[in-house]
Structures
1.
Amino acid sequence: MMKVLALDTSNRPLTAAVLDGNQLLATTTITTERKHAAFALPLVAELLERAHLQPTDLDRVVVANGPGSYTGLRVAVTIGKVLATTLKIQLVGISSLATLALNFSDTNRLIVPLFDARNDLVFSGVYQTEPAGLKTVLPDRHVAFSRWILELQKFHDNLLFVGQDTLHFVDQIKESFPTAVVVSGPKALPQAGELGLAGQKQAVVTDVDHFVPRYLRLTQAEADWQREHPGEEQHNYVEHL
């Protein structure tokens, strides 16, 4: 059985878990603090103790590697790289948006995880659950929300929006997709247990030294142009610059 540590510090929630194969041994999610650099390592040590494991017992560390908070992303990625290097264990990175989508294995709707990136910008993507696991329908991106709504129109109303930040956009979502499902609250929190399960099926990082967070942020000029041209493709930005 593979012993796995899973960690997500990419946004306000801090969630970590220790698994032995498909068995969840210990997990904790904290939503009241944003000092992930101070809390993450003590939490990892606590979970390993509760699981009656030593760090040397681990086979793999799985981290959510973005998009999300600049500082938050660096915490999990750094811990993952240090553990993988010092313990000589495997490292896996999974999208922070995909981590949210993993909470909905029982839906037939397309899943649209969403993080507020401020100034009417969002981090988002589109996922679909399949028997083999989560499938990426549209890759993660940093995009003006008005443009993203237009791009999602091709899926009609068969959408499930998820994220603590969906409350900021719920009126626009419901106006464009009247029968879409919008999920916030506990179901919209990342679960490190799900992250750890998914990470056991993913390819490992082959070059740990060059493993970095996926920030995905647009430049301010790109963001401004997209807001002014919501119906046009992103490559037109360069053509019209």
2.
Amino acid sequence: MPNSSKTPLRPLTASDSPIRKLGVMAKVATEGKVKTRLGNTIGFDKSAQIHQRFLDHLFKVFQHWGDERHWVVSPIESISQTAPQASSHWQIIDQGGGNLGDRMRRWFANHAFSHPALPRTHAILIGADCPLLSPAEMDQTDRLFRDCDLVLGPATDGGYYLIGLSVPADSPNENNPPNRATHPSRTILNTLWNDIPWSTDEVFDRTVAAAEAIGLRIGRLPLRSDVDTEEDLTALLHQIEHPVDNTDVSSDHIELARDIRRILSQPMI
């Protein structure tokens, strides 16, 4: 499989200029509805606050990345209850119904394959469980698209924290050379999000196998851990507060860790 360290990347040309779209797929921070595994040990009020803090952080960090930024939200009717909400840099998009695969497929169908006459669309979807993702990872994904059709960020639990597609027009032209994958959109959408055992440790491997079966070229990002449990949250705080090799820590990350500590110090309700 192509990756950033082994596959030489060709220079982009003017005709390759993509439309870059980023979606953050995350629920409204409602107590008892988000981060329930974390809430089972620290309290559901605190886990909802931490979920909201992760969202606020991601909205800020990515507010200028790409051409379009979407909060792909559920349930959309509850969004007025959240504060603060995404800024004017973000569009609010309804996830809709169905399982996780249905909801991801819907976003890609509506926002990656919707304008086939335009230059290539680079559509990237992430969740809110990896708050230390940065524009550098999105830039790396964008570079991998020069020679890949699909980019995945593998998670330690067997899922993925990022999935991105480089989508061409429906037929070869100057923006879509014939050596690029040109599968019908229905084939790609059904292959990547049908018959995947969601919420299991098979998600990543099954997705890779399905993509390879239709000839998609796959790029991988580094392995990352989601924050789903108290142990994961402790590891996240340690990563920020005790960086290895004297790595510089951004002020945004320091503020994030401080706010998490503040939330955790609140009395249990």
3.
Amino acid sequence: MDAQIKVIDGEINKWAEQLPEIALLKSIPGIGETLAPLILGEVGDIMRFSNAKQLVAYCGIDPSVRQSGNFVGTRNKVTKRGSPFLRRALYVAATTAIRKSPNGSLVNSVIYEYYKKKIESKPKKQALGAVMNKLLRIIFSVLKNKQSFCLITPEQQVELYQTSRKAA
């Protein structure tokens, strides 16, 4: 059984090397050799989704709505409608992105700061769900724009956005 698994893994890696989307996904810190083909296989063609919210709903990590009449529930959970394999891959990628590498540096400093900000007001599992959502939006952007991931701080992103608005 182990020999068959190794053969299948080898075939997956051989086919994955030929896809440019795999290299784009590997550019995101926290996504590596194993998760990139899994995520791409579960997402499929990114052109099916017109925006990131559709991909989040497809994955099943969007919050459910509980309301009836004037009552609006505040303890909402994720819908879990989508692929459990994709949710599991995002969970692993999120936990990898918020940890420190063996040399002591952060794997993804921007995601780590986002996580620290979220755990000030939310339980840790909810904050991890928010990180999964953010990673999925990053994956959508990378695949849709066909550009590798570039790690920039939120301040740099605001500055870049303001300069692009002035140019327009």
